[in-house]
Amino acid sequence: MKANIVRDSLRSFGAFLNRGRTPYIVSAVLLVLGTVLVYVSPRSIPAFLLFAIAAGLSYFLNMRKSVKLALAVLIAVVIVPILGARNIFYLEVIFQIAVFSALALGLNIVVGFSGLLNFGYMAFYAVGAYLWGFFGSQQPFLLHAIPGTVPPGTKFFLAPDWFYIFIFLGVIVAAIIGLVMGLPVLRVRGDYLAVITLGCGEIIRQLANNLDKPLNFTNGPQGITPIQRPSLPKELLAFFNRLFEPLVGHDVTANQFYNIMFYLIAVLVVVVVIVVTYRLEDSKIGRAWAAIREDELAAQAMGIPANKLKLGAFAVGASFAGAMGVLFAASRTFVSPESFTFLQSVGVLTMVILGGIGSIPGVIIGAAVVTILNVQVLQSFSLFLAQLRQSDAVIPIINFHWKDLSNQLDPSKYQRLVFGIILILMMIYRPTGILPAARRKRELSAPDSLDVPGDTGAEDTGAEHAAKKGVDHE
Amino acid sequence: MSRPAWILETTDVVKRFGGLTAVNKMSFSMEAGRIYSIIGPNGAGKTTFFNTLSGLYKTEEGSISFEGRRIDGFAPERITTLHMARTFQNIRLFGGMTVVENIMVGAYTRLKQGAVQTVLRTKAFKAEEARAEAKAEELMRYVGLKGVGNELAGSLPYGAQRRVEIARALASEPRLLLLDEPTAGMNPAETEDATSLFRRLRDELGITILLIEHDMRVVMNISERISVMDYGEKIAEGEPREIAANPKVIEAYLGRGAAGGNAAELAAGGAEEAKA
Amino acid sequence: MSGLLRRNSGSEALREILLPLGRMGVFVVGAGAVFSAIMLVLALLCRGSGADKLLVDSQGINIVTYTLVNLPQVLIDGVTLGFVYAAIALGYTMVYGVLEFINFAHSEIFAIGAFAGVEFLIGMDRLGVLKAAGPMGSYMYLVLALVVSMVASGGIAMLVERTAYRPLRNSPKLVPLISAIGVSFALQDIIRLVESLTTGQFYRVMPTFGDFDKRLPLFSIKTGQDSTLVDIQIKSIVVIGAAVLMLVGLNYIVNATRIGKAIRSVAQDRNTAALMGIGVNAIISFTFLIGGALGGAAGLLYALKFTRIDPFVGFMPGIKAFTAAVLGGIGNLTGALLGGIILGMLESFAGAYLGTFTMGAFGSEYKDIIAFLVLIIFIIFRPSGLLGEQVSQKA
User: Fold this and answer.
1) Which of A212, B229, C43, C352 could form a disulfide with B44 if both were Cys (CB 3.0 to 4.6 A apart)?
2) Which residues 6+ apart lie within 8 Å of C133 measured at CB?
């Protein structure tokens, strides 16, 4: 009963929001308010959350598509860079949201669209990251060097702008690795497939960890650094500063501008990923994936080459991660096996499941929520605890001195707990996620009333007529 | 007499599961443009035989030819591409997809646009999708479904699901359609509708139909030829009235107490046929 | 089927004790012999190779002698590890047999057992009774710690089943699997939280007590002027002995008692078992209880052998034990034992020889990769495992 009241009031609130001009006003007011708040107090989390919610809400409100698109461009290209320049941390958060959105969308193709579980998804991200990590650094000249040492005068292997080519190479190489890792789908399904992908993911991580000998490909656990970033377009920086200096309040430095640049590249990649995902979903390929997920045998009987499509899902999913891996390596100028653990793979799975398995907007929301939880909420709790630890505060009754608090209790170290609880609760209470996937409704010419066949005999003539006119089987 | 143009011809097909021989030396042929039925007691191997025809099971021995081409050993998707389609005894729709999508999945082998065109959303791709959607709608109307295109297939009533399954099979443009107990669970009115639909499929669209059916009224009513299976073997074949009178067939049904009802129906259906 | 009809007589009970003991002996000797033979053939093939020359230069022995000299120690280590894996693998295999579901959280049940037992011993140590205990006393405390581990792990395993798996029992197959991953991760951090709350450190070190670290010399091998002593640590004997006892006990419970019969019938067909008046929920709980208890005991044995434990200690042994279960044929108790021993041997041999034979290019760090490869290859090419005919039919 209570749930119904909540649902009903939410629904009527939604109806109110979507009436006439209301959505335009609401989203404009919220966006302006959020922007101003973040602008005025760049460190306030509520302000940032309001801004994030305003941006997210605009997508769901009933507005014209062109308006939404214009808003998205305005937010992505103007507002966020300016706000980000005032507090680089936001750029970092949004960059990570973009990266994880792409990863989650890629995993969603495998898990959500075609119903195959993949616990080793970070391996593809690792492949992309190490691809640029190796070729975009001095590593090719260090094959015979002792891990961790760099002889003086070692050059970089490639010019920094090869980075852009390597984004595409990352797509291709990761897709190939995806095909290889997907090969077991030809024989294995269900939970066994999940375990195999976990094994493959761990093998790739361990190879990254161990391939510092006999030849030093990966520099072992220490990871590869420095990795080159693409060269900074100086004119663009000057242009940005000329244009926005009054708004930002100071000149953006080259390093800060790198953050803006990587953020923009990430957003661009995500946009491409979203478009590709939508187009694949709404095509015979997407329908075939869904059919395989629902009933593989029936799908095959309908003429769907299930193995080919499952491998395809692995390859496409992997390719997104490959591109983001290259971007990640360049933006961090550092890669190490630590970033590609089972924990990370499960983290991406958590995003998919929290947001709504198979649902594109859901998965993006999942990525945003989990990322914000990880890098903002947990970390600010940690910060808060750290401040308490510095202070002389005492919890009265039990006489506990905050300064005695172990830094092992840092909330930011408890990602596993967060992922774990999200996964359990979602599986038990809402396995379809926050924003469940919905099948696309088509504009069909037939009347919109449910007409169960067999009840009336009159329809047959009409159907016959249609058949003679249209159904052509030769 | 010249050899008729067999659309489907099997010789000595054998399918075993471990020690059990589910289909034993099944030889069967059917002419294009006809409606044939396979009947037999439960567990006689009819559905297994269907599964070997549509490539879901690999045969151990024997050969299967479709339109003069050996197809045994082909993957199911390849057989569908060759214009043979089927439905399932225990309706296997993609319950989480809409009715239109289900039917469009059936058209998979007839859609030519590849991944690149899909991602680029070319004109040709859009045109093909629109055609596929329009055709799915036509097929819906043809099998007698209206206004349920956007419903989830799994939410439809039983009889409607049967129709969606047939529409889905039709979308693959079959020349031979295998229907596995298509009227099971239907009430008499629905059964009658379905029967007339099968006739129209053959008469209007020229599709050859092979039925597995338990409802003897349906079988006797529309089949032009009937094969009877028991213990994985074909024990009789002939026109409906011959089958109804065949002592071996009656024994096969009566010999198994559980199938007594069927035997009674068999006799009843035969009588009806004879009257007609 | 015949197992269900079997009557529970005295001689039958004896049989259920002796038979698994015999099997263990055969598996240990057989696996040891096969691995040793393969290793020796490899060594003979590698005569004159770079690795051989390197050994002659550095240690003055050729590769065949090197292999032979190290063999007994490698075998002992392999068997010890193998029994630990087998004890963990039983938890996976029992749950899989009954629910057809990979209990991913079993590796944390293992870790909980390790922590519970070690915490108990640390507590005893703090009281001072541990150091004061004599030789018999130290064994008594170890047994007590084992009991604590088993109770803690078995209880938590049951609790996990009740809260995170039972509501999902009729969901699609991947749903409980994802929930299990969630439980696994959550438990890791809960252990970490609990341990950090009390001391600020999340790892624990097994207190040293008794004579478990002492090495019993067995024999020595003379090679030229040197001689290599082969010995066995007392704790290895304890680990093997405890594992053997538990495995026999479990085998007895499953094959020779009423409740074991109920477990087997639930594994065969849950619905029919329910119709026959078997309390399916209670039986599944009990399965988690004994699987968890075994895992917990294995955790403490692991802590005894490797001393330092942290909340993530379960992951690798868990994966390897699962590999062992698959290797032997998942759902099959004997198979888990065989798989555990083979995997333990494999790891021990790879750890000891891989580095030497490849002249340091690939060292023992590849032993995890080898375990994963075994897992993948078996799942792909022989998912029913070495002994798993029955299971493949059931699935």
Assistant:
1) B229
2) C140, C141, C209, C210
Backbone angles phi, psi at A358, to 5 degrees: 90, -5
Average pLDDT of chain C to the nearest whole number:
88
Which carries the bigger pLDDT value, residue B178 or residue A466?
B178
Choose from A403, A424, A430 for mutation: most chain C CBs within 10 A: A424
- Chain CA centroid to CA A50, Å: 21
Is-contact A120 A201, C-beta < 8 A? yes
Neighbours of chain B (3+ CB pairs under 8 A): A
Note the pLDDT of residue A375: 83
Are C167 and A428 an interchain contact pair (Cβ–Cβ within 8 Å)? Answer: yes
Q: What pLDDT shows up at residue B4?
A: 56
How high is the ipTM of this complex? 0.89
Which structure tokens are listed for C36?
Answer: 């040793």
Residue ranges of domains in chain B: 1-83+174-276, 94-172
Model confidence pLDDT, tens digit, residues B219-229 = 998 999 999 99
* Distance between CA atoms of residues B66 and B72, nearest Å: 9
Q: CB distance B193–A447 less than 8 Å?
A: no
pLDDT tens digit sequence for A260-311? 999 999 999 999 999 999 999 999 999 999 999 999 999 999 999 999 999 9
What are the pLDDT digits (tens) for A324-379?
Answer: 999 999 999 999 999 999 999 999 999 999 999 999 999 999 999 999 888 878 88
Residue recorded with tokens 């080159």: A228
Outline where chain B has alpha helix (H): 46-53, 76-81, 99-106, 115-120, 123-142, 158-171, 188-205, 216-222, 240-245, 247-254, 260-275
The first and second tokens of residue A56, run together, are: 């997210």
Considering the segment(s) B1-83+174-276 as one domain, its CATH architecture is 3-Layer(aba) Sandwich (3.40)
**Chain A to chain B Cβ contacts (< 8 Å):** 182
In this prediction the pTM is 0.89
Whether residues C179 and A188 touch (CB distance < 8 A) is answered with no
Predicted local distance difference test score (pLDDT) of residue A344: 93
Just give the CATH number of C2-394: 1.10.3470
CA dihedral C148, C150, C154, C160 (to 10 degrees): 70
Within chain B, which residues score under 50 in pLDDT? 1-2, 257-261, 270-276
- Judged by a CB distance cut-off of 8 A, whether residue A191 touches chain C is yes
Q: Which of B235, B274, B275 is nearest to B256 (CA)?
A: B235
- Residue in A284, A447, A452 closest to B108 by CB: A284
Residue whose C-alpha is closest to residue C346's, from C321, C371, C323, C369 = C371
Taking an 8 Å cut-off on Cβ atoms, the answer to whether C361 and A431 are in contact is no
- Asked whether the beta carbons of A181 and A123 are under 8 A apart, the reply is yes
Which among A417, A418, A421, A422 is the top mutation candidate for probing chain C, defined by the most C β-carbons within 10 Å of its own β-carbon? Answer: A417
**A463 pLDDT more than 50:** no
DSSP state, residue C144: H
Q: How many CB pairs under 8 A join A and C?
A: 138
- Residue B134: closest CA among chain A residues belongs to which residue? A444
What mean pLDDT comes out for the span C11-18?
81
